[in-house]
Amino acid sequence: MLTFRYRLLAWTSFIGMFLVMLAGALVTKTGSGRGCGDDWPLCNGEFVPAYTLESLIEYSHRMVTGIVGIVVLVTFLYTWRYLRHHQEALWYAGGTLLFTIVQALMGAAAVKWPQQPAVMALHFGISLLAVASTMLLVVWNCRMKNEAEHASSSQIPKVIYPIAWGIWFYCYGVIYLGAYIRHTGTDGGCMGWPLCNGQLIPYMSGASGIVFAHRAAAAVLLILIAAFYLIVRRCKSKDQSSELRTGTVYALVLVIGQIGSGGLLTATINNENIYLFTSLLHNVLATVLFCVLTDTAIRSWKHRMQ
């Protein structure tokens, strides 16, 4: 039985994990990753560190991660104890716990032994998977309350689900490339938007090449999601395709917003305070987009025609 307590745990895990992801992005954007030196879990050798902006940001991130980690663990144990017969819920709660542990260990390793940007970008990617897992548990709770939807037996054409998963994997790669740009500090590789340094196709090396590749990949993602929406619209299965259609509409709006926020990043790069806000907005939109695509991919697989 799904109790209010369990739904509250699921929502708390989701919101908390989202805050952990934003806190991690804030640490990166403010260069506060070394705010606690090379100590972990202590900060500069102290449980309560001396006040500096960098140590405050880094230690706050650790504290939030620790608290959310406890909530995630409690949610998993509750799921295991009372809802293990619901395999889907167990997978989502277990996935959240696994990704939370992995990303915490990667964060600790980054403090003790500074990592390459490619590894640090993967750290963000793992956090993204943790957020998506908590979102899936929340969505599962909401759908289980709707008995009519839960009882629906309509199916989706089998061709839909490999397309959905292909877009999901591609989106993950685009977001990873964006995180890599953030960790290499090459944000300013392309001045101006949509042109890059005044050129349609810039010199493809160094910072400009990396940023342009991210922009081009985002444009392709927009085309893929738009095409996927058109394909889903032609789906004959009314009940399940309407759910997918709604998801693809959300994804289309979000990817457009994501590209627009990328333009804002370029426009505000010389204003440190505004740039921090636009950077966090860019991260939020990317995370929500990934969560929507994750739900769409899983739903298309669950209800595919055999």
Provide a short characterization of the protein structure.
This protein has helices at residues 4-29, 53-82, 87-112, 117-145, 147-150, 160-184, 206-233, 238-267, 272-302. It is mainly alpha-helical and 306 residues long.
Characterise the protein shown here.
Pathway: Porphyrin-containing compound metabolism. It is a multi-pass membrane protein. The chain crosses the membrane at residues 59-78, 90-111, 117-139, 159-181, 212-232, 244-268, 274-298. Pfam families: COX15-CtaA (PF02628). It is found in: Membrane. The chain has 306 residues and is mostly helical. 75% of the residues lie in helices and 0% in strands. The protein is built from nine helices and no strands. The chain has helices at 4-29, 53-82, 87-112, 117-145, 147-150, 160-184, 206-233, 238-267, 272-302. It is flat, with a radius of gyration of 21 Å. The two termini are 30 Å apart.
